[in-house]
Amino acid sequence: MISGIGIDIVKTDRIREAAQKWGDKFLRRVFTDNEIAYSFRNKNPFLSLSVRFAAKEALIKAVGAEVPLAFLDIEIVNSDKGKPCIKVSGGMEAFFEKRSIRHAHLSMSHEHEFGVACVVLEAE
Known about the structure:
This protein is an alpha+beta fold. The protein contains five helices and five strands; from the N terminus they run βααααββαββ. The chain has a single domain (2-123), classed as CATH 3.90.470.20.
């Protein structure tokens, strides 16, 4: 059963400008160490960061305003085959358990200026 759907789009320059203005403080408040390391291994780290930010926002929209959460409770990881996946912890993990959410389906895409993501939550 579908429990929630969310979509978000982020302009790459928005993430770049925030990182340039606030530096490591911004990055570490929004992204996990793994997300930062993965993104900065790419030619354009801000494109990778922007699509991850969009994925986090899409998940927040799919959940709705039912739970206070932290960006760091959401981590965008890649499966062994490279497929992007959502890993939750903390308050978000507790919310998933409470609502019997068993899977968060994630689709991401990016183009030079934008990162976009869609999340579909599946419950029992």
